[in-house]
Every structure is written in C-alpha cells, then in structure tokens.
Amino acid sequence: MLRSVFSGAGVILLLMASGTYGFLLETRHIFPFKLLKYARLRLNPPKGATREPHPERAAETPSLDAIRHLANLPYLEGYSPPTAGGVIRAYDRTLVQDGLNFFTSGNAPEAILMDMDGKVVKRWTADALKAIPGVQLSTSHSGHESFLRDAQLLPDGGIIGMFDEIGVVRLDASSRVEWVWRGPVHHDLCLDEEGHAWSILHERRVVPELNRVEPVLDDFFVELSSEGKLLRRMSLADSFLRSRYAAMLLDIPAFSEDVFHTNSIVVLDGSAAGRLPAFRRGNLLVSIKRLNAVAVIDPDARKVVWALAGQWYGQHSARLLPSGHVLLFDNLGTMRPASRVLEVDPVTQQVIWSFGGRDGENILSETVGFVERLGNGNTLITESDRGRVLEVTPDHRVVWEFVNPALVGKHKEHVAIVYFMERVSRDQPFLTREVSEARASPGPEHPR
Amino acid sequence: MRSFLGAWRRIGGAAALAGAMALSAAYGYFLVPRRWFPFDLLVKRHGPISRLLASHVRAHDASGNMFPSVEDLKAKPELRGDTPASGRVGVLLHDRSRAENGLNFFTSAHAPAALLMDMDGAILRKWSVDAGETFVRDASRSRSGEDAQFFRDAELLPDGGVLALLDNIGIVRLDLESRVVWSFPVQAHHDLFVDFAGVIWALAHERRVIPGFRNAAVQDDVILSLSPDGKLLRRISVLDCFRQSSYAAMLATLPPEGEDVLQTNSIVVLDGSLAGRSPAFRRGNLLISSRSLGMVAVLDPDQNRVLWALRGLWRGQESVQLAAGHVLLFDDLGSMRKTPRVLEVDPFSQEVLWSFGTTVDQPMLPGSGGSVERLRGGNTLITETDAGRVREVTLDNRVVWEFANPNRVGKNQEFVAFIYLMERVPSDLPFLSKIQVPNSKPPAPTGG
C-alpha cells in the first residue's frame, strides 16, 4: 500500500520534473536546446521577416513580401545575363565630369582604374590567401577571397583594399603588400582627413537588450592608422544604447542574429555642420540596412547623435553633401522592383532630388549600390547588381553609361557585379605622362 | 508464463511513464510560445513570474511582434483597471504657488462618465450616458460589453456639453445635463479632437481587403470628421495615406500578420504654428501617431497622403501633440528601462528639449499607457492611465500637483480605475455659472 503511494507520488514528481525541464528548455535554453535548432525551426517557425518567405505567404502578400524577399537576396558575384552593346553605351563629352573611374568588380580580387572610354589605365591585384596567411574561411564566407568588396585609391598610387570577413590589405602601386590587418570587416572602408582607414567589423556578442540569451552580430567601427595599426573600435549597439535613439533597437526582430547589417561608412569633413550640429567634422555617417536608417555616430562620445528612417528601404551608400543634404542609394524604397537615388534634406525630410523609379529612369539593384555626387553637379550611380554605372545630370539626362565587360558564373552567364565606382581626377601624380596628356589637345609633348 | 507477463507489464509501465514524461516536457516546452493555459493567469498576476515571462517573450517572441505591448501579453486586455489599489487617494499634493489654476476635466473607467473636478478634488459636475440605451443595436457589437462601461476619450465643449468616445461603440454628444444631443455609432477608438471650427475628428476601425497590400482582411484606421451636429463630413483611410506617400516603405517593416496594422492612437489638427519650418505642417493638416510603426506623422486630408513622419526617439508613443513648436508625447516603451516617459522633441533637429520619467527620481508605473498636456503657464499635466494617477510637473521636473483616482473597479473593487485622460480647463468657463457647486467636501486623503 505504502509502496504504491510512493510510486504514485514518484510518478507525479517525475511528470512535474519533466514539465519543468521542458519549460526551462524553452525559457533558459538548457542542453540540448542548441542541438535541436532545426527541429525548433520546424516546430516554432518565426513568423516575422524571414530570409526565405513561406511559399504560401509569398502569394498572400504580393508586393510587401516580394520586396522583403528582394531585400534579403543572397550575395552573388553577378545577377543579370549580359546584354548587347559595348562597354561604354553613352558618352556625352560636353556634359560629363571628366576624369578616371576607380572601381572593383565581382569577377576578380582587383581594383581597376579606367578612363572614360573604357580603357583600363591601371590594375591592382590582391591575393588574400597569400597576403593574410592562415586565413580560415567558413563555408558561409568561402569565395570572399575572390573579389575586393571595397577599395580606396591613395595619392602614391597604392590602394587600401577590403576583403569581406577577411581583412584589409594595403598595396603599393605595383600591388605589393605593404601591410595587412586581419579582421571580419565587411561592406565598406573609407579614409578620413588624416589618412586613417575606417571600416565596419562584425563581432558576435551578447547584447541583453537585443536578446537575453543568444549572441547577436554587432557592428563595430574600427579606425586603422596609415600603417595598419588598430587605433579605436566602438560598438554600434552600445552607441545606440548610450543615445536618445535606444528605442530604435526595439524594432529589431528578436530572433534575428544579423541585427544591423551596416553597409556604408563615411567620415564627415564638417562642411555641412551648419545644417545640423550632428554633422560636425570627424563624426561617422553610416547606413544601417536592418533599421532602414542612416545614422551619425560621434566617435569620441561613442553614441548615435542623429538618425533618420522612413522614405527608403534596404539602402546603401549614405553620403553627406556640403549643402547638408543626405545622398543615398535607395534599393527598394519604391516598394516595386525599382531602385533610386535620393537626395534628402535631413532637417525637413523633403526629397530634394531623385533619379530612378519613374519612366525612362530604370535602375534596379537589390543587394548592393553606390552613389557619388560629382564636382559639376552630375551624379555617378552604380547599379551594382546589373554591373552598370550611369552618370546623370541634374535634369536626369544620362551622359555616360558603363556596363561591366567581365562575366562570372560557371558558364560566364552573368555580368559581374560592380561594387562601387568613383570618379577621380586625371591628375594623379603616379600615372604615366601618357594618360595625363591624353586630355591635352593633340600636339607636341610638353616637357615636364 | 507469469513472469513473462510481468516483464511485459513492467516494460509497458516504463514505456507509459516515459511517454507521459515526454508529454509533460512538451507541455512545458510549448507553454510559453503557444500561450497555453495557465500562461494568461501567470501573466495577469503582477509579480516576478509575470515579469520573467514578459522579458522572455520580449527576447524570444516568434510571433513577429517587435515588442510586447501590455495588450499583446494578455489574452483579454484590461480596459478599466488592473493596478491593485493601495495608499492614499484624491489630491495628494498641491503646491499652490507653482501649480496652475483651473479645473480638471477627466474620465475614470469605473463608469461611462466624464468628471469636472477642482484643484482640491471636489467634483463639480459629472456627465454620463447609458450606452446600451443610446446605441441600442451597436452596444452588443462591442467586444465584451465592457466597452460600454467607460469613456475612452472625452472633450469638454464651450457650452458645458461633452463629446464622448466609447471604444467600438461610437461617439455621443451630451449637453450640460447629460442629455443625448446626438449619437454616431461607429467602430471608434482611442481619440477624438475638436478643431478651431468645431469640426470633430475621430479615429475608427474599418475592416478591408487591400489587394497589393495583403490578401487577408486588415483593420484599417480611418479618420472621420463630423460636423458639430454629428453629420459625417469626411472619411480618410490612414493606410491609404501611407501607401500613397513617400513613407510607404515603412509598411514593409511591419510583421506580415496581425489585423490591427497601424494601431493609430492619436489625432490632432495642426494650427499652422510650424508651417514656417516645413510646409507639411500647414494649418488643417493632421498630426497622428501609429504605434505599430513607432511613427508620428503629418498627413494632408485633401491630398490623402502622409507628408512627414518620424520615428526612432520613442517606441510606444501616444497622446501626440504640438507644444511650443515641438512634438510632445507620452512614450510608454521607449526608455530601455521599460518605464514610460514624456518627451518633448524638436521634429526637425530631433533634439530632446524636455523629458519626464527618464531618471530614477521621476518614477512612472511600468507598462502604463498615458496622456499628456502642456498647460498655458509651461507646466505639464501627465496622466498615467493604468496607475490612475495624474501629476502636474514644472519644466524643472518638480511635481506641484498630484491626484490619485479614488474610484475603483473589479469584482471586489480592488483595482484603481484607469484615467485615460485629464485636461486642465479654465475656471471661468461661461457655463459654470449655471451649475451649483455641491456641498460635499473633497475626499479626505486616506492612509498614511
């Protein structure tokens, strides 16, 4: 009798313990929670924005879900089949901003300097695996050694190049490695007025305000000296938490690891500080894709001092013009498969100028994009995913068009992506006399 | 033979026990994400368990909600009172030298009533309505019958009449004697506003199917305008205003599920005082708040378009209005400490000019909604709805008047009745000469 009471009580205790174990498994993530990851995803599929939309839901919400899907396409080296036509498909010599074009492309770990007729003037090549020995690439990052995600041209004819998730290499004019800096940098690299390089770095860490238990992929801004030594690093999550914009973190879906996806960085030169105190010299202007926001961070106070979201979606390449306007590449803000470039007044939020998204102005780049305002008022637009670059006048005329001749893919079926293209002056001291004088009218060579 | 059966019985028993344990573990595992019984009971009981569950739901909510509002956590949201009553009631503090003069017009959710009270707590007038009689057919349409038991919003009219909004039931216009002048049955919610011409603007729900947005029906927010005698003038869909604007991109940030898409919760008609800083703020345009987007927005009722919108400095905002050329609002989620705060923000520079509730010595009730009003002399009247508490604070954050609702709700009158709003009105209103001040003394503060 007593024995059956004990065994009955024991059974009840065992059942309560099992229930508690299940409860703790879910709330406290005790063993073997992590091992059950795939089973969990099947049982409790996250119902927010997912990388692969549920097939039925994609049909249910045609436009918004399609846009979310486009914003989350995987990164590839090329997306579109080649089209008929040469490398330079438009060239109005009277209206363009003259110069040379500096860019990187998805087909090779190179940076290229090219003239307005499509002729390659100079090429730098970096071998990531040789330059950064022992670099181990996880499967999700394999292939990142085969292209330069970003590069900056230096006055001495060298470049600073960036390999996604691998590191930064400094090459001289002959592509010899001067220094490397290893680290999971990504998306963008810029130079400040002292010649220091700033980039964006991934670091997995626990930020309790974002996720109590699981680590998130925080973005750090790192400053490297001109000799490649790390000077400073600061966390974007902490910069938000110290600021009046902490509430923006509450918008991030709780289950997502890629919480920010910062994809551009520039150091402000102070020429627009009159528009807003936040635009003072030395502050960092970044584009944070997951928040659909552009933000300014004060690297001394280490906090976000300004941020704006609303009229763009999945944006890249945020820059500040001397007028105080923000210029950016708005990949999907039209809510259609159409990209555009926006110039926005950050104080009133008025759209001052835009290109794309209307008849006759067709650009579409879902995953990457770049834009630069040129000295003569024209805008150089890199439609990255299509491997195409346009120079347009303020009244929307296309006065120069470049299509990447490089092809990628197993059967060379796609045009290689152009990550960015910048117009630089022809007067580069390191270039040979030949190119500099090509601009001068035909005649006897001027002695130097 | 017997021992063979016995062995089978033991194996069967062990298997049954293992199965029962697995079921218990599964029950414990799914209890929180699927909100199985007794999740709602655990959450309702304010205490360490409900706080643990709330913070867990915040970290791991797979339903796509960006943040759990008080409504999200509870199966049946409390509409009238859920804070246990304790302590003193009535006017707890009155600094006559610094508090502003006037009378206090407020609603208390213990009854479908609006009250006019002096600064010492004496009730001068009560307006109430029998919603069942007034809105005969429609009272039964409300969610639980509870909507008929309180005024969600009310406005005092110059002739001593009152406009009252009952959630999901409609809008009623009473005279000084609480006689019904007219009633307008509609799925009204949250807020109404009387403009300079006496036109009444209110929020209402409308279920629609919007192809291209979602195929399933959504709960759109419509803005109604009624003439002073209760005739419908205009009907504006807030969703359409967003979809037709340059802020349509923000709709893609919403979770794909959830019928109450925008959660619009406040409306104010602009008087044009900020039109000089931005044409969007011209007189007659509407300033609204969308809780799900976290956005404060200005829309043009003629163009049916959102012209300006801002997010990022707050998260669970309500009671949004302009004061001294700035946006003043009650933010019940924005502070990462998860307690509410009042913010006054310059909509263009995004500077926070004033706040209350942001430091430890300015305690506000966590999870409480509320409303706010800037008084003529510069003080601010802050209503914490769930706490049933109203405080008048100076610009240097000194509390100079405090009122604790003596009214109770609940089966055993154990909860403080919600105060959805309190406004300070002038004490020399013309109709006051018509009402006799009752002899009753103000309720003496009880407790110690």
What's the SSE blueprint?
The complex is a heterodimer of chains A (448) and B (448).
Chain A lengths: L1 H27 L8 H7 L11 H6 L1 H10 L16 E4 L8 E6 L4 E5 L5 E6 L2 H4 L18 E4 L5 E5 L3 E5 L5 E6 L2 E7 L5 E9 L10 E9 L5 E6 H6 L20 E6 L16 E5 L4 E6 L4 E7 L6 E5 L5 E5 L9 E5 L6 E5 L14 E4 L5 E5 L4 E5 L5 E6 L3 E2 L5 E2 L2 E7 L8 H6 L10
Antiparallel strand pairs in A: 1-24, 2-3, 2-27, 3-4, 5-6, 6-7, 7-8, 9-10, 10-11, 11-12, 13-14, 14-15, 15-16, 17-18, 18-19, 19-20, 21-22, 22-23, 23-24, 25-26
Chain B lengths: L1 H29 L8 H6 L3 H13 L9 H4 L9 E2 L5 E5 L8 E5 L5 E5 L5 E6 L2 H4 L1 H4 L13 E4 L5 E5 L3 E5 L5 E6 L2 E7 L5 E11 L3 E13 L5 E6 H6 L20 E6 L16 E5 L4 E6 L4 E6 L6 E7 L2 E6 L9 E5 L6 E5 L13 E5 L5 E5 L4 E5 L5 E6 L3 E2 L5 E2 L5 E4 L23
Antiparallel strand pairs in B: 1-27, 2-25, 3-4, 3-28, 4-5, 6-7, 7-8, 8-9, 10-11, 11-12, 12-13, 14-15, 15-16, 16-17, 18-19, 19-20, 20-21, 22-23, 23-24, 24-25, 26-27
State the helix count of chain B: 7
Unreliably modeled segments of chain B: 58-76, 138-144, 443-448
DSSP strand tally of chain A: 27
| First-to-last CA distance of chain B | 79 Å
Structure at a glance:
Chain A is an alpha+beta fold. Chain A has helices spanning 2-28, 37-43, 55-60, 62-71, 128-131, 236-241, 433-438; strands at 88-91, 100-105, 110-114, 120-125, 150-153, 159-163, 167-171, 177-182, 185-191, 197-205, 216-224, 230-235, 262-267, 284-288, 293-298, 303-309, 316-320, 326-330, 340-344, 351-355, 370-373, 379-383, 388-392, 398-403, 407-408, 414-415, 418-424. Chain A is elongated and about 105 Å long.
